[in-house]
Amino acid sequence: MATTPNDPANGTKPDKADLSQQMLMREVDEAVRTDEVTGALRKYGWSVGISAALGLAAFGGYLYWDSRNERALEQQSEHLVLAMDELEAGNLELADQELAAIDGQISPAAKASANMLRAAIALEGGRTDDAVAFYEQVVADEDVPQPTRDSALLRLVTANFDNMEAQAVIDRLGPLAVAGNPWFGSAGELVAHAYLDQNKPDQAGPLLVAIAQDESVPESLRDRARQLAGRYGFDAIDDVEELMSDLGSGNGAAAAQ
Predict the structure, then answer these.
(1) Do 135 and 196 fall within a single domain?
(2) Total of domains in the chain
(3) What is the pLDDT of residues 27-41, one digit of tens each?
(4) Taking the model in full, what pTM does it have?
(5) Residues 214-232: b if buried by 16+ CB within 10 A, e if exposed
(6) Which residues constitute the domain of residue 246?
């Protein structure tokens, strides 16, 4: 699942073509911990399943927090339930139509959730430009909670990474690629790849080392960062003896591959 970069000694760069797909898979480790999305993940792909879980969580939280405009919220809830029913039935087009009916003027959080789902449906259909447009709406809406906007931004860059200039990736994700930020690992890895695409291993290396040494980052992502940092001459191993012990016991098999 991890990107295996080409040998820098050959003058080649990490494979950007695989990175977008891998990031969608990778977020399962970081963002999906609910049973409700299991069926969607199996049937409709990781992008729809993940965004469905996020959409339901955000929409449910909003309904709990704000009981004003009760009828309007009930109607929006009905649209979301119908959309999820259509997703379960495999009718992505009909689900998209239900999500389009959710009114952001009454409920910005509900509209953001709908746009996140619509973006995932667009990605499932190979419509990257449409997905990026939906994510951009979420990112630009100041009435939407910042964590949701940050999540949309990360997904936007992930989906559109192949079409973006490396500096644009760095500029947009740089604020998230900071230790302590919930998206540090995923955003930092993308920023590091962008630096490598600019032939700046001196910028990418320290960032990869920080990711590899951050215990709050999922272990699979830390392993990838450690391997990539090592390829460019940066030592990201905290405890050599512990690592060798893990390798000897079989726990570090993934890191050794």
Answers:
(1) no
(2) 2
(3) 444 444 434 444 444
(4) 0.66
(5) beebbebbbbbbbbbbbbe
(6) 164-257
